[in-house]
Design goal:
about 80 residues; single chain; about 0% strand; mainly alpha
């Protein structure tokens, strides 16, 4: 099974049965440094996507506008 197919299967399992997906991930034996780097990458990508989604909307409250003005600020705080 290719890496792409495994990731698709794992994403599908994550949506269908999250506890089982967590067990499968932990059984992979991924080193702690790699898991930490993956968590950081997910946080940054999530913040970037939130910033892009909001774009130039003026209807945000001041706190949300401040947090989403910068992807790094959204990821850190």
């Amino acid at each position: 099974m290719t890496l792409g197919a495994r990731l698709v299967d794992l994403a599908r399992l994550t949506l269908q049965d999250p506890p089982q997906a967590a067990r499968v991930l932990l059984a992979e034996g991924v080193p702690l440094k790699a898991r930490s780097a993956a968590l950081l990458l997910v946080a940054i990508l999530s913040a970037l996507m939130a910033s892009l989604q909001v774009g130039g909307r003026e209807s945000l409250d001041p706190f949300s506008a401040l947090m989403l003005a910068s992807p790094i600020r959204a990821a850190v705080f």
